[in-house]
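haha ok so turns out i had the wrong file open the whole time. this is the CORRECT one, sorry everyone. sequence first:
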Amino acid sequence: MKSVAGRYQYAWILLRQLVITDFKLRYQGSILGYLWSLLKPLALFSILYVVFVRFLRFGGNVPYFAIYLLLGVVLWSYFVEVTSQSLTAIVSRGDLLRKLNFPRYVIVLSVAASALINLALNLLVVFFFMFLARVPIGPQMALLPILILELFAFAVALGFLLSALYVRFRDLSYIWEVGLQAAFYATPIIYPLNIVPEKIAKLLLLNPLAQIIQDSRYAVVTPQSPTISSTYGAEWPRLIPVVITLVAVIIAASYFRKMSRYFAEEV
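then structure:
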């Protein structure tokens, strides 16, 4: 028991140090520094807002659509940050892997934890704009931490899988870049779900990322936001994205654990 406790204590200390180091080095040398953590999603939101709201007139029938759009961008940005950085995390730490013996999963978890700090800062920006827009806050807001936990689990699962696969298949970075572009438009981020045909909307919401974003909008912005439960007219379909997330976690953790013993030799 002492050996197990010591091992996880060592992993925790290493995880904390990696997160601190990554957060300090991320914007080192830049003039605005940590402000880029807030400016990047705001810049993307501004572009999408001008193009899709002002020019294409999306979201006219959605209350507080600007906040609705911003929240979707913030949650999507977290997913992209975790998966994209996890993809090369093991390979980029090759020197460390060859010199030290430590749990390899700590590297991927440090990426997700560091991105979680950015997510927390970005959510503060969302709440600030909610305050300015006088968005009413209801009891459904209590769902947000649960949804963020689901997002964390789904992103980390894909991060484990991608990082392990990338050690052997370096072309994966180009494939994943294209995959993210496709996933961005297949997820209701820039467009309201109610403009999509019902059959397609039901299919889209089986994606855990789409379900998380829509449920978060329901919890934070407006109860009028369609969710997987309201779209299907029943509560049980909500279990499908959750089961997909759990299966992804199990498969990714198993594959990562199996391949981690070879990382030092292959990176």
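The first helix runs from residue 2 to 26.
again sry for the mixup
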